[in-house]
Specification:
The complex is a heterodimer of chains A (336) and B (344).
Chain A: E1 14-18, H1 19-33, E2 37-41, H2 57-61, E3 66-68, H3 73-85, E4 89-94, H4 104-111, H5 114-117, E5 127-132, H6 147-152, E6 157-159, H7 164-176, E7 181-186, E8 193-197, E9 210-213, E10 218-222, H8 225-237, E11 243-247, E12 250-252, H9 256-266, E13 269-276, H10 281-293, E14 302-306, H11 315-321, H12 325-335
Parallel strand pairs in A: 2-3, 2-4, 4-5, 5-7, 6-7, 10-11, 10-13, 13-14
Antiparallel strand pairs in A: 1-8, 6-12, 9-11
Helix pairs in contact in A: 1-7, 3-4, 8-12, 9-10
Chain B: H1 9-34, H2 49-57, E1 64-66, H3 72-77, H4 82-90, H5 123-136, E2 143-148, H6 155-166, E3 171-177, E4 180-181, E5 184-185, E6 206-210, H7 214-229, E7 235-240, H8 258-265, H9 269-280, H10 285-308, H11 327-336
Parallel strand pairs in B: 1-2, 2-3, 3-7, 6-7
Antiparallel strand pairs in B: 4-5
Classes of the chains: A alpha/beta (336), B alpha/beta (344).
Keywords (chain B): Oxidoreductase, Thiamine pyrophosphate
Cofactor (chain B): thiamine diphosphate
Domain Dehydrogenase E1 component (chain B): 17-314
């Protein structure tokens, strides 16, 4: 991996902040460091973004660099692709991941394919930030988790932070990357707090998972909100079952080595990701482990996610379909 | 400096030479495809040469264009090398895209050519983005989007024009109305008399020019370019033209007759421009014949060279996906390859 990390540079200062603040800090630092970086999207300016992630940036960087767009995802996603191909580094906000369908053409046939189709003669340094996930009663068109789609499609990279620190580190890496990177933020995590390195060069390489808690009996590979819920569960189970929790962080590329090393130690695997269960992120993690650590497995791999339905509106229904820590517990109970 | 100054006699001869090169290139491409020499599809620009050459002549060297699936003419008009283009049509290693793009995806970003495009209507948002880069960095360059009449029915071009208009971006939107969107006549796809009426919705200038007249296209784009570079925003130009060949080579063309084609061929862009240059004393008949023969010879040589050129090494299929290395591609490729990837 070509991206620099803070590793080896000594313990940097940290500060407790929310995921929202960590993302905003990452953008602020990158905007300060590189004039080619600009933010573009619906209501990202004075309004500050519907989740207030870009709040205040326009005051410091101006409307040229924090750029409100018409409500036309295909138009401004395409403009970002054209801008990236000609030497700037756009950071695009797509308000809800569900709207990626609106601009899928510019992602699938232009952003993802140009470099390859043109024989490697163009670069595509575009970052797409978007929000995923249910839990707000926002119903099906504003609650989807679509990251598998983009992690699967060749030519773009996909990351999904599970903590404030990884939110900062992954977004900075994405912005500095000369390749297109999608950053999938779970909207229920914006208020989640944690220690975040203040080092302006703190980045997390694409394709690196993070072992958030070490354990001996079972590995839980989790993403986004499921990382925190799995850590809470591991704490609850301490003394009874020793749970290793890994924040997958990077969906593509994917850190096979860390997964294999963990399963070689624990012999058991649960994959927890808030996305539809069929053909998904869970399946990819399971396949990598099967291909590389099959003989270490002592029990069938378990998947925790959404049962291939859309996210319903009523709290009673929404709570039913979304995965939680107790679903991870049930999965552990099946195999430990 | 404009690429070709059509106000001068040298510029007029250069414009003629480029139109003849495009016609020779696409005539040869059609012949090669008919002979089964070329893989894939080819979409020929024959008949529309005045639009590409007139428009690119009016641009500056550093300006950008986006193109369509009928992009050979735009490439040559922007100054790309026919030899490298022909190699790409063959899928050879020396082609513009090292054999990964083919006819529909020729690009040379350094030359300002942001790619032919297999998706109808997908280019204008890219031009809006190139114009955004220009404005953002105060580069003074302009981005021109070529697109067809069929693309005017695509939603994303309207988004692209609206954004460019709202932000006063240095862009020019040039629709080549060649009278058919694939096999359906333009009047069956749009309810307006002239596609340039589209401009009214964005409060930008819009007009229709004779796309069989290289000078008319040049003058329209020159004015639009000046307006764009002066920070006054985009212009929408419709160039009325005609494609002599089918939508793609092999198209049986049940939607028109030879007589329909002949009506437009009477106004052929090359013949009419030649007539004017000969009348003005800029070019003699024999100079024209020599110019045409030279263009044909150049393309014949390019095709012969491309035919003999090497295909890319199969292992190159796994290159160029990303700027950075991802372990997945080499690991998966090694497993998939029948030779086990031994030569990698």
């Amino acid at each position: 991996m070509s991206t620099d990390t803070a590793a080896g540079s000594g313990p940097a200062d940290t500060e407790e902040m929310t995921v929202r603040e960590a993302i905003r800090l990452a953008m602020r630092e990158e905007l300060e460091q590189d004039d080619d970086v600009f933010v573009v999207g619906e209501d990202v300016g004075e309004f500050g973004g519907v989740f207030e992630v870009t709040s205040g940036l326009v005051d410091d960087f101006g409307e040229d660099r924090i750029r409100d767009t018409p409500i036309s995802e295909a138009g401004f996603m395409g403009a970002a692709v054209g801008a990236a191909a000609t030497g700037t580094r756009p950071v695009v906000e797509i308000m809800f991941a569900d709207f990626l369908g609106v601009c899928a053409e510019q992602i699938i046939n232009q952003m993802a394919k140009n470099r390859y189709m043109f024989g490697g003669k163009t670069e595509m340094p575009v970052t797409v930030r978007t929000t995923e996930g249910g839990g707000m009663g926002a119903a099906s068109q504003h609650s989807g988790t679509l990251h598998t789609w983009f992690a699967h499609f060749p030519g773009v990279m996909a990351v999904a932070p599970g903590s404030p620190a990884s939110a900062k580190g992954l977004l900075k890496t994405a912005i500095r990357s000369d390749d297109p990177v999608f950053v999938f933020e779970n909207k229920m995590m914006y208020e989640q707090t944690g220690e975040v390195p203040l080092d302006e060069n703190f980045t997390i390489p694409l394709g690196e998972a993070s072992v958030e808690r070490e354990g001996e009996d079972v590995t839980v590979v989790a993403t986004q909100r499921m990382v925190g819920e799995s850590l809470e569960l591991a704490e609850e189970l301490a003394g009874e079952t020793s749970v290793e929790v890994i924040d997958l962080q990077s969906l593509y590329p994917l850190d096979t080595d860390t997964l294999v090393e963990s399963v070689n130690k624990t012999g058991r695997l649960v994959v927890a990701d808030e996305s539809p269960l069929s053909y998904g992120t869970h399946a990819e993690v399971a396949s990598r482990v099967m291909e590389n650590a099959f003989y270490s497995l002592d029990a069938p791999i378990q998947r925790v996610g959404v049962a291939d339905v859309h996210i319903p509106f009523s709290p009673a229904l929404e709570d039913e379909v979304l995965p939680h820590g107790d679903d991870v517990k049930a999965a552990i109970d099946r195999i430990v | 400096m404009v690429v070709i100054d059509l106000e001068t006699e040298d510029g007029q001869r250069e414009a003629m030479r480029r139109m003849l090169t495009i016609r020779a290139f696409d005539s040869k491409a059609g012949e090669l495809f008919g002979d089964g020499e070329l893989p894939g599809f080819v979409h020929l620009y024959i008949g529309e040469e005045a639009v590409g050459v007139g428009a690119c002549a009016a641009l500056e060297d550093d300006d950008y264009i986006t193109s369509t699936h009928r992009g050979h003419g735009h490439c040559i008009a922007k100054g790309l090398d026919p030899e490298e283009m022909m190699a790409e049509l063959y899928g050879k290693a020396d082609g513009y895209c090292n054999g990964k793009g083919g006819s529909m995806h020729i690009a040379d970003v350094d030359a300002g050519m942001l790619g032919a495009n297999g998706i109808v209507g997908a280019g204008p948002p890219l031009a809006t983005g190139a114009a955004l880069t220009s404005q953002y960095n105060d580069e003074g360059t302009v981005a021109l989007a070529f697109f067809g009449d069929g693309a005017v029915a695509q939603g994303q071009i309207h988004e692209a024009i609206n954004i460019a208009a709202t932000w006063d971006l240095p862009a020019v939107f040039l629709v080549e109305n060649n009278q058919f969107g694939e096999g359906t006549p333009v009047e069956k796809q749009h309810n307006v008399q002239n596609l340039s009426e589209t401009a009214e919705a964005y409060n930008i200038p819009g007009f229709t020019v004779d796309g069989m007249d290289v000078t008319a296209v040049y003058e329209a784009v020159r004015e639009a370019r000046k307006r764009a570079a002066d920070g006054e925003g985009p212009t929408f130009i419709e160039a009325e033209t005609y494609r002599y060949r089918g939508h793609f080579e092999g198209d049986q063309q049940p939607y028109r007759t030879d007589e329909d084609v002949a009506i437009w061929q009477d106004r052929d862009a090359i013949e009419s421009f030649k007539g004017r240059l000969v009348e003005a004393g800029t070019l003699t008949e024999s100079e024209f014949d020599e110019m045409e023969a030279t263009a044909r010879d150049e393309i014949e040589a390019a095709a012969a060279k491309a035919k003999e050129a090497d295909y890319p090494d199969p292992s190159e299929a796994y290159d160029d996906m990303f700027n950075q290395t991802v372990p997945e591609i080499s690991a998966f490729a090694d497993r998939m390859r029948t030779d086990g990837g031994e030569d990698r």
